[in-house]
Here is the input.
Amino acid sequence: MKERHQSAELELQLIVSGPHLSDQFGHTVDFILEDGFEVNERVEILLSSSTEVGVAKSLGLGIIGFADALDRLKLGCVVVLGVRYEAFAIAQAATVMRIPIAHIHGGEITEGAIDEAIRHSTSKMAHLHFTSTEVHRNRVIQLGEDPARVFNVEAPAIENVRRSELLSKKELEKSPDFSLGGSSLLVTCHPVTLQKDSERDSLKQLLRVLEKRIVSHQIIMTFPNSDAHGLELIALLQDFAAKYPTKTISKDKIHLVTKRMVGGLGQRSRVRIPPSGLRPTMLFTTSWVSSLNESFGNPKTYLRSLTISSAISIALSMVDLLGLSLQLRNAPL
Here is the structure.
């Protein structure tokens, strides 16, 4: 976005929507403004309900709101990243209004989530495709897209982390006023949107396992997005954080949730336990455990078909071995 913003050939116009505009989800539009960007349109679509019906209605509100915004802005192209239903809404509006679409992160697989259908549907509406791997590029081509319009550019999120100046441990602890201690677990939760009524039970199982490790680890938890049943999962995470206030920090306590901070957390956490947010772990000395099915299909080796407790134990061992290997490799002869 910064490169487009500084380009003499391109005019960047931002449409901000969904949880970015919600106090309940951190009102992160403030971070966009702090980074020096102008927000050209704000499209409110969230309802107070986090049921499937509520999310479906938000999708409909999105198509209506984005249609009005696109009509006012007169864009030459709409750039859509990922598989959020908000992005799906603007892609549908742009398609009907005959505005070309550039789609980032097409061709990927996400088992256990509606993301799979949304991603491929968005790819079929798009005119330009920017994928994160050659495998994903080939999958977009298999959907019938013109190979000359499909480009493997790698993942923008990884490039952002590479370019970011990460916080030191001292700076990292100062921002949320929370001690990371000697070992920490970074836990990020995302509903598995194709498994009906399974999210609460899965999260409760994960929290029971984390409770057994609360003595030896600090736990940093992020909250789910505005997906179906996301608010219910947030309530469970808040209750857990309130039960262990000196050992656990949750997203609502973090006042400086920036890319530098998230990168620093990823670098200094020994194990990440997300059903989402996989890509940054590729850059750090961490292991990755998926407690649910939402990220299965991503191009990284991870622990599956194990109990959560066993997977975390194995992951911690893997981190220790990898850390030792790096020390030996960097040691003087």
About this structure: The radius of gyration is 20 Å. The chain has twelve helices and eleven strands. The chain has a mean pLDDT of 78. The longest strand covers residues 39-43.
